[in-house]
Amino acid sequence: MGESLKRPSILSKLGSTEPAIDTPQLHSVASQPRQRVVSTAITGLSRSLDDLTADSVTTLDAGLIDPSPFGDRLEQDQEAFNLLVASIEAEGQKIPVLVRPHPEKDGRYQLAYGHRRLQALKSLDRKVRAFIRPLTDAELILEQGAENGGREALTWIERALFAKEMEAQGLTSKAVWTTLGVDRTGLSKMRSVVEAVPRDIIRAIGRAPGVGQPRWQDLASAFSTEGAIDRASTVIARTTFASMASDQRFLAVLKALDEGRRASATYVERKEITSSTGKQIAYVSWTAKGHTFAIHKSESQFSTWLTENLPDLYKRFQEGSASEPPDVAISQH
């Protein structure tokens, strides 16, 4: 107690900001994520500290602070977390977390941001330096999003999921894209991916730090293929899946769906056309590339007649004046 810092609120500055640039995208799992450029919403805040209301820093027991009700991380980056623990152990907690009084539990608090710092301090059995501010759900998730956009190293899919959480709390699209440092198009792509890929599949894959927007869009597209969810679930159920790195889990699911999509494209559905006496006349086959109509080799005269009369038959079809259907039956084999 007694210590005071100035901490800007994103809420007081958001309305006048515009997104600066889109987030750089990753084009292969093998590449490392490029450094994210923070939007002017966050940069402007750091330049305006003296114009904003200061919050006093309070020291709290870590056990009194519950997690944010809005998850933003799929899994812990253990190496980065270990480095944070070592830093706090050596130098102390430099940046306070933000909490609100718990809306349902007297004497407790809910975290708005600073999840990793809180976990590190718990592991060290240390008190937590925190800003305390009354926040609605919408305000809490906005503050959490501002921190994620400006400091916390969320992966692309974690940011996409969090954008969905923000919109679910009634925040406008502009508030979401400004807070996360993307543009309108970037937010639209985030929406399309989290709507196309089942949430349990995303959570099974994990944070996938080396996978950016283009590859996630590839996966979303692959889920449009019939049977995609079953194929993905089969991969996830393998005993070796959980032990793989998150990027490799992503690749395994994408590979299975791509193989299924190629199999669907080469699948041939065939129907035979027979006369009323059961004699084979022709067959029709369907693939992803089109339809094939083949006359049986024993019906060469019919084939010649059909070739000569097909233009007229098509014209009659277009005019809606085709003659009575022939005495044939279609059966699937």
Automatic annotation (TrEMBL):
Protein name, per record: Plasmid partitioning protein RepB
Gene Ontology molecular function terms on file: DNA binding
Top-level taxonomic group: Bacteria
Alphabetical list of CDD domains matching this protein: RepB_like_N
PANTHER family linked: CHROMOSOME-PARTITIONING PROTEIN PARB-RELATED
Organism for this UniProt entry: Methylosinus trichosporium (strain ATCC 35070 / NCIMB 11131 / UNIQEM 75 / OB3b)
Keyword set includes Cytoplasm: no
Protein's GO biological process: chromosome segregation
GO cellular component, one term: chromosome
Family of the protein in this entry: Belongs to the ParB family.
Domain ParB-like N-terminal, first and last residues per copy: 58-149
SUPFAM superfamilies, per database record: KorB DNA-binding domain-like, ParB/Sulfiredoxin
Presence of keyword Ubl conjugation: no
UniProtKB keywords: Plasmid
